[in-house]
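step: validate -> pass
step: tokenize input -> pass
step: predict -> running
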Amino acid sequence: MIGKLPLDFMTLGMGTHKAFDALADTAENTDDPLVVLGELGDVMNRCTGCHSGYRFGIEGEDRED
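step: predict -> pass
step: emit ->
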């Protein structure tokens, strides 16, 4: 299945995993919740962007948005 995934999807996915790792590091090393929340918001924007653009579906059926 990995061979069938678009390169852009794979790149975004790997970047998102790294962003979550960075978020965990930030959460461990700061006492400022606003810094953590700001970084979380950035990561969540990556999540929603990917999920809105890449979906599995059934060929021939219209996608409901």
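step: describe -> The chain has two helices and no strands.
step: cleanup -> pass
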